[in-house]
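As a warm-up, study this chain.
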Amino acid sequence: MTALLYAQHGAAVGVLGPFALCTADGPSAFSPITARRVVSEIERLRRTSHRSRLVYVYVVAEDANLPDHETRKIVAEVAQHVDAVIGIHEGTGFRASVVRGMITSINLLARQRLRPIIFASVGEAVEHLERRSPELGAKRLFEALASVRAQGRRAAA
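Now compare it with the structure written out below.
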């Protein structure tokens, strides 16, 4: 069962077992205010969860704008509270590939404790998780991310 923690302006945060889920749809989905809320929900989840692992899975729609410097700085705080980060930057073509490449490069240069693994689709991320950590039950992510995303989209309407 997916629990929704927050939904506003096309962004939503939910939880499913060991997965903290975040979705961003539309050009204005991720602002510093939304980012701060995401971080506080993840912090709260870490404090209150009795799970040994917490995996942050985020999905950014192809039409979402890249976050500004302040928002990126806030979102980087999530890594302090989770055990792994899975990023899904949807899209095909040159622009989408460049975005994923930039994110991967920035994370390599930042020398963070955790380096997100970046994918182009939810399907790719689920396949990766099923191969690497089948005990997490990643197959449930399809429905969970769809549910969280739908609620974020409704909040934006």
